[in-house]
Specification:
Strands 1, 2, 5, 6, 7, 8, 11, 12 and 15 form a nine-stranded mixed β-sheet that branches. The protein has a three-stranded antiparallel β-sheet with strand order 13-14-18. The longest helix has 14 residues, at about 350-360. α6 (about 190-195) links the parallel β9 (about 180-185) and β10. It has two domains: about 1-250, Alpha-Beta Barrel (TIM Barrel); about 330-395. The protein is globular and about 60 Å long. By secondary structure, it is α/β, with parallel strands linked by helices. It has helices at about 20-30, 45-55, 100-110, 130-140, 170-175, 190-195, 235-240, 300-310, 330-340, 350-360, 365-370, 370-380, 385-395; strands at about 1-5, 35-40, 55-60, 60-65, 70-85, 85-95, 125, 145-150, 180-185, 205, 225, 245-250, 260-265, 275, 325-330, 400, 415, 425. Helices cover about 30% and strands about 20% of the residues. Bound molecules: zinc ion (2 copies). One zinc ion (ZN) binds near residues 77, 92, 151, 157 and 210.
Length: about 450
């Protein structure tokens, strides 16, 4: 049976948009078609207590509010920091837990390591990669059901990210690399980009939203469909370990905030000016032509370098054997807002069209999985404007771009029916117009 899972999120304790209610999460999960959602921040004392008080175990390791169908899975992100290469590297890492007992056990273990659980995303300070391996193995040894997934591997805070870059996963995770079965694609990468990196042929690729809110364009903006034998925590983890990923649903990497190399507008010394480069146009010294500081190296550039170092032979677009079917999506509220020419994805008319579409299909996920002809038929029959239907189908078919693509923390800007050559972006100054929010 197939289960749509979004296993990486954050509570209000990780910073961002304030407190998030379980009711709001459930409502959005239902609309988006997400059956299992990671709680985020489950090591944080207050959030943990809140979850214990408000959730009951429904199936083995999966929790819900009394009588409700949405399922929650205990999850956190931690940040391992260690000296590697020329400086310290911080790597975001997702942990999944089978029970509150295992969460409590790891909380105790982290306290004994001197880790503070007072922020949603605790730092685990390590000496070097050997120490990262030892500490991560100790965490995993606390309960055999605990699963580790390197988070958004290509962003600057991911294991392959541009901050003090490493060439292989073991260069950061040390001996614990043996215990890792899957990596998270993150918003800035998808199976096409990650297929450039040979060592990932041995790992499952999973996708999660990393949502900091229950908004319709955050929760479930990426997710993974697992092929499971039953609805339970154990089955989901078994699917990860045996690479039984049925498909991932991906945010377009060029919309992600770190796709190209560059510096965003508003940075010190920039004013309105920004710069963005495809790999072949990045200045040789990697310095920003506007402010003179080091550029934020984008995902495309990092993936191509890793491919080189690891002896990769695939071109961008050639999929590795571990890549499963994946679909490209743009959050439906953004497609509707774009079609109406409005910026706000929460405006009344956007939401009412969204509700009509998701009611017709059962959920947003089901709409993205549907055939073009079924989308056309169903949406026409309920009176959805032809332009919206046309934009949805073009996006499904890959006939869209984000121009300029995302870079240095800015999201790309959607343009349906247009193409941008991601290998030929060379912008040294310009004005982005309305900036999009960062979370
Ligand atoms: Zn993260
Ligand atoms: Zn700059």
């Amino acid at each position: 049976m197939f289960l749509n899972c979004d296993l990486h999120s954050h509570s209000g304790y990780a910073g961002g948009v304030g407190q998030i209610s379980l009711d709001d999460l459930e409502k959005t999960m239902d609309k988006k078609g997400i059956q299992v959602f990671g709680t985020g921040d489950c090591l944080h004392a207050e959030w943990r207590t809140f979850l214990k008080d408000n959730l009951i175990e429904k199936e083995d390791g999966l929790f819900s509010k009394k009588g409700n169908s949405a399922r929650f899975l205990l999850q956190t992100e931690v940040i391992f920091t260690a000296a590697v290469g020329s400086g310290r590297k911080s790597v975001h890492t997702v942990l999944l837990f089978p029970s509150f007992e295992s969460v409590d056990k790891v909380c105790g273990l982290l306290e004994s390591m001197g880790v503070k659980n007072t922020i949603g995303r605790p730092f685990i300070k390590c000496e070097d990669s050997k120490d990262v391996g030892d500490k991560l193995c100790k965490i995993l040894d606390a309960d055999e059901g605990i699963e580790v997934i390197p988070a958004h591997v290509m962003t600057p805070q991911g294991v392959y990210g541009s901050n003090n870059p490493v060439n292989y996963m073991k260069d950061f995770y040390g001996s614990a690399v043996e215990r890792i079965s899957a990596v998270e694609t993150g918003l800035s990468a998808d199976p096409e980009i990650l297929s450039l990196i040979p060592e990932l042929d041995n790992f499952a690729l999973v996708s999660n939203s990393d949502a900091h809110s229950a908004a319709l364009n955050r929760l479930g903006r990426e997710f993974t469909t697992f092929d499971v034998s039953s609805v339970s925590y154990g089955s989901i983890v078994e699917a990860i370990r045996r690479k039984k990923v049925a498909r991932t649903a991906e945010f377009n990497p060029t919309e992600g905030r770190f796709f190209l190399t560059g510096h965003r507008a508003g940075k010190k010394g920039h004013g309105d000016a920004y710069c963005a480069f495809s790999p072949k146009f990045t200045p040789k010294d990697e310095r920003c032509p506007i402010c003179g500081k080091g550029l934020t190296v984008g995902v495309l550039e990092r993936a191509l370098r890793l491919s080189d170092v690891q002896g990769g032979t695939r071109e961008l677009g050639e999929l590795s054997p571990s890549s499963k079917d994946f679909i490209k999506m743009v959050p439906l509220v953004e497609v509707i807002a774009y079609s109406f020419g409005v910026l706000s994805v929460t405006s009344g008319k956007v939401v009412s069209v969204y509700d009509a579409i998701t009611d017709a299909f059962g959920s947003e996920a089901e709409m993205w999985f549907a055939k073009d002809s079924d989308i056309e038929k169903k949406l026409s029959s309920i009176g959805i404007a032809p332009e919206i239907i046309d934009n949805i189908i073009k996006i499904k078919d890959g006939d869209f771009c984000f121009s300029p693509a995302g870079f240095d923390g800015t999201y790309g800007k959607l343009k349906v029916g247009e193409k941008e050559d991601i290998f030929n972006v060379n912008i040294v100054s310009g004005h982005l117009g309305a900036q999009r929010t960062l979370f």
